[in-house]
User: Fold these one by one.
Assistant:
Number 1:
Amino acid sequence: MRTLLWTLGALLLLAPAAVGWVHTALRDPEPFPVAPLHPWRHPPELIEGWLLLQQGLESIPQGESVTALGEDPGREMELYMLALSLLPSRQVLPSTYYGLPLPEVGPRARYILALPCEAAEAEGEPVARVNRGCVRRRR
Amino acid sequence: MLDPRARALGWPLRLALALAAAAVILTFGATCLALAGVRWSLWSLALVVWLPGSLAAFWWVARRPGRLPPGRPENESLGASRPAAAPPGRARLVAWAGAVVLLLSLAHLMAAAWAGRMTSPDLLYFWGVKGIRYAAAGGFDLELLTSPFTIHTHVNYPPLVPVLYAWATLWAGEMPWKWVPLSAALWWLAGAGVVHGLFRDRWGAVAGWSVTAFWGAALAASLVHSYSGGNAEAPLVFFVTLAVAALLAEAPGEGSWLRLVAALALAGAALTKLEGWAAVALLVAGAAARDRLLGRDRVLRRTVPLLLAPVLALAPWWIFQLLHGIPFTDPVREPLGSLGFGHAGEILKAAVLHLGAGSWGLVWILGLFFLWQGRRQWRLVLPALSLAGGLLAFAFVVYLHADQEPARLVGWTLPRLLQPALSALVLAAGAAWFQARAEEPRSPRFERGLW
């Protein structure tokens, strides 16, 4: 009987996962989203940024430069970090880095990723719109 | 894999050992290529794995006859002091139940990975970027590693995971973001193969299935809970598990093969994460102390390779860093040694709140219970205990460096940081429990396997 304690313990460890998946089956309208991020487990800002980059990718030609503008320095930094991942063949320039504004770096970029769109409303022309975010091209 | 003792280990363990060797050799070889200025490609990287792999195979075959333990048949497995076998009925029940637990754990892990529930934001912020950029640059991308605007990618981190992602990107043509978190399931499977193979070999089939099922359920829950899909946590857990299991499975006087496995695993851990370096130091100290306490011979001679392998594996990367001005410390982190004890209470409180490990904390309670049952074997499992306890202390010291929002930092990082400790605790408990059972006076009930 003592040996079976290990197996019973292992079965017990599965209980939280089982509860979680039952909850998912009952409540989650989209249990397997297209993005590698889940709305129950990741901040909405991260998912929003990911979707903007994924869907706005085609509107930024390869080799072009791009920067990120957001409603606060933290969002700009996050969007910049994601852009480095998702736009590998573009030159990604930060507008803000760890809260430090970079007025001589970001403005050199030809394309702007703006989340929300209003963050770059005065700059350039719109190229694509994804939910609350935009891709804009400077003239 | 050519050693007759390795052939007796079963294919899950042999595949896991092949994965460990391939990952270490690929990383080491790719770094050497970068040092020599040779561009990475599918062919050049294939060569760095194939060439040393073949040389090692020849060396192994050449040395084999003289290295077998005297008087042991070639197909005999590693274990020298396993307890009496359980009766077929009981053993079969444990095996079936263990297999079901492992399948359910795997399903949990894979479903969570595919649903994006365990994706690590660090995959998107820096692990993936490095892989893509290294693949595009055909080596370590110096622009990325030296730019003042990419220090968030932790440029000083060891190279194993980015090298593997670069290699995968070269194969796939692009980074398959949706699939990458599933790699955690591969490392978990390899870890389960290691635990099952080495525990079965040392303590018998019931021990193999029991400990593997518990380890599998615990680590699958923890990997999902701590967002370890696609970052370096799963490979680190795998390498640490391999090293701990190999050191625990050593029987007195029969350690050379397992020492080699442990040295390889420690090299992998050191190449994977900075925490791997702490794991190496703690495990090596624990193994040396254990051997000394148990009166095993040639302690120093058997300990040195454990330390030497990680240093040799990392040497090319350190040289590369030195030659190209890549910092050795993390520019993002607080300077080493700037401790502040003002937040100690807050850190401890946050730590207790984040010990759930995806199992409501049950894994710690049950693990400590099993360990307590086998407490008389504490010397035998000292390497694992040293790692588990030492990592807790290491984490505390790391958090004392945080000068802003330490509770938030603890909540975000502790569940990941403690996974190697969790694995070590489970393995220590398993080894202590089943060794204690093996040393119990053999009652008729024991002889019938009803223990």
Note: Residues 153 and 288 of chain B are 36 Å apart (CA to CA).
Number 2:
Amino acid sequence: MVKDDGSVRADAVDLDIAGTLVRVVCEDPAGVAVLRTALADHLVDEPAPLGFSLRVPAGMTKFHLLVDRSGFILARVGTIQEGLAVLGSHLASLIPPPPGTVRIRARVFLRDDATAALAAFPLVVSQPVIERRLQHASLRIVDRLVVDLRLDTHLVMSAAPWPALRDLPIAPGHARAPAEPTPIDTVLIPRLSRDAPSQADLVAFLAAVTCSGASRADRLALAESLTATRVAVVPVDDPSVMYAPLRWRPPHI
Amino acid sequence: MSAGLDGEPVAMDDDRAFDSFAPRARRDVLIRDFDDGIVAWSPIASEPRCLAPLSATVLQLLDGDVPAGELVADLCAVLEVPEGAARDLLRRELSLLDGAGMLTTSHPSVEPERERDVFPAPPNP
């Protein structure tokens, strides 16, 4: 809400989602009302650590921005409803992963043919995606900061359990977690040294960005399986080069 | 400085003390072999390590019975390097393996496991 002096009033919504306390700050009063209704079962009175901020257009920008607690941009969208949809999907990351999966710090991109590409942390963190470029590349980014994978590298993620957020319109270039298991056929790895990484380097790196909820044997097994996909090593600070490998598709046999 | 089997510090820069120290690799390290190296993950480390072939070989030699002095002699023979160079090499490898939690004398990693925190970076103050 823009006040008379031109500043913006933001309201905080404090939540407990599966044991994790998180605060959402929203500058749109109607958005706050939607959040309080949709997430009524998770509201808490105690102040929670900041997680996400949903900002209304200000100055020259016409976009609503969703940023995480560090200020990294997660989405630039046209409407508050689209922003709430992206936020709802990100909040679902706080729910434990489905059984039989390993959680990994990565962003995932869906293609129209129900295949997917993974960009391992810290790609797509400080350099956010540009929705327009995703659209041009027929890609959609799944709005989760972590993704859940079976050991056969299929994406298997729980839907966000809040219909009032889940059923809002999806912003161009963004996607909900897919309803069906989706194969990962491409993995983007950040370039960390001048030398080309060995397979052992790749496995160690990918295992290190998995989350500790799964066994170490499974985390290593998933990392090894991911190195059997098409792996592209890309610079962290030049996001423009990642779109080409993300678009790659396996040849039809 | 590293810890000996009895928990007493071993002066890594003292050749005589170093040569009498018999390092032992943990037996519960998870290891995956690849053509171009091995990945080893100690149960007390938060992350796995990719070990170069020499580190992997040294790790396999550390049974706790063979003192470092004999390992130095082995490296001299296998790598055909002077004793001083072999000792420096072994010190470096032991330090690397110790830091990766691979030795029975290694201390647990102090890096927190990040199971629940989905965010890529700490809050911006």
Note: Strands of chain B lie at 2-3, 9-10, 30-34, 37-41, 49-51.
Number 3:
Amino acid sequence: MNKKRQNGITKWNKYPSLKRLGLVFLLWIGILMAGYLFTKQDAFLYQETIVKITHVTQRLNSDAKQTDPDYWQEINAIVQNGKDKNKQVVFHSTYTKSQIASESYKKNDQLFVRISKTEDGTFKVKVIDVKRDTYVFFLAAFMILSLLFLAKKQGILTLLSLISNALVFFLCFRGMSKNIFFLYAWIVLSVAFCLITLVFTSGFHKKTWGALLSSLCSVAFMALLYQISIYQNQQISYELMPKMVATLPLKEIYRTSVMIGLLGAVMDVSITMQASVEQLLIIKPDLTLKKLILSIQEIGYDVMGTMVNILFFSYIGSSLPLLIMKVYHEYNLSAIFQDTLMFDAGRFLIGAIGLVIAIPISGFFSVLLFFKFRRKKQ
Amino acid sequence: MKALLYLGMLLFLLMSAVGGERGIKSFFTLGINALIAFISIYLIGYKAPIFAVFVLSTMLFGVVTIFFQNGWNRKTKASMIACTILTLLLGFGIFLFVIPAHMVGFDEIELQSSDATYLSSNVSLSMFIILLMSLIWAMLGALIDTSIAVSSAMNEVCLYKPLIGKKELFQRGMKFGGSIVGTMVSTLIFVGLGESMMLIFYYINYRYPVYRILNSKSFLLDVSGIFISCISCSFIIPMTALVFAGLTEKERKITEKLIKKQEEI
């Protein structure tokens, strides 16, 4: 019995027994519940005033036949922290039925507010934002747990690489003066992100260096293409980008965002290619170059179609709400394209071309690295 | 504008050069998907019943991406079933999550843009379903890709070992899935990081304190797109492995019987 259990632990690739699965599941629920309870009670950590809604009464404030009727809410709430703790406050708020630009508050919601005393002794409450940390925690914890559950060691390494990438990003931002950062950050960041992610996820192997070389080459190629096609283009008005800050160098930021969005896909293709070629040559050491190239093409087909889909859905999903609202308000097609779609379309196209170009490049490097090396050995 | 057209043409040329016939097929899959997205956005914009459009377009995406691109066989069938089940489950999960988290509608940064007041006036659409749609669409690519990868690998295993047991087949699928989910997650996160780059500089520029970022709608909206994709591509692995192992169970029993008969003869 003991031996069995040990085997189960040391051989992580062996699938856990039902008992262990149950334990893991309980642990999951425990962590999620503990986090939930904690983040619901963590008002004392904040300096801003937080109130918890105890009671809401609402009524229709306008004609119900209106396209987007208004509602009026009277909200009773209790202050959760600070010197006014446990004090009752009452305030009013309005929202529209679609909730597109306003929030409808419900019982037990927690809000950040600013409370000021008026001259006649009553409180005036201004809502700043909803407290959403519980939900951020929930999503992050759920993702991390599912990654650890499925990929185990690989999952931990992936998480570590993500954390180090984030650290590098902020160190880079702190370390460079602003102008230099916006001009050159994409170069430093692409090299650092590639190095960190590949070393963490596949270790110090020959395939890692092959993948690193081929992804850097692909990124360099795409940077050139980006320079010619989009960066030099004078017609693009970057001020139309959503969520932009007009005082920042938008052209440079857009380039940084495009180049970083490209990295993941390129690295994925490169490491898959290197790993499969290595595996192939271990299984069939007497493979001819011609047959190897055929297999590389085969791997390329498999990777390409699906990766392009990932990029496509990811970009279309994120720009969807704005697109729908613009179509709804009858903006014409060229305006919609220019304002909202264009920047995501640029990101998508550069990313997709990057991952397609990464296939022959990484194929070339894998042949160079594994095939040539094998010959020398012989 | 022209630059993007040229880039699109370049993409087509490269895909057909690198991928041959299958590259062209992938490009057409992409084109059809773009057309579906375009038509459904216009249908919703012109006040067609939004939920029906959402369900229909999502199903069409699945059918086109799985069956048109990868053919009609047992691995694509298993993927389709697994993806459908997981999309329904995740849709329900998002439904429970989104409303208490106050994620519906424009976020506070979008509301400050110049045309936000015009865009948010007189809207009769359900912003909740639009949000659901954007989250589900964003994860669809990763979901389908992982599912197809897992079922193809299991199919390979079945071809080499036709008599493999249900449990072992499931374990093989899980193991293979575990080996690809790491790179998949990094890909998704880099794509998400690229998309949120503007937002990050917005926070830095206006000196948002950390607690404001963690509680803001814009942050939660961006993060949820990425994280739900990651969650979906982790959970699709056991789902696909389970469905595929279940589907091949019958075939395995038939082969077993045949082999037994042959041995008797």
Note: Confidence is low (pLDDT under 50) at residues 1-13 of chain A.
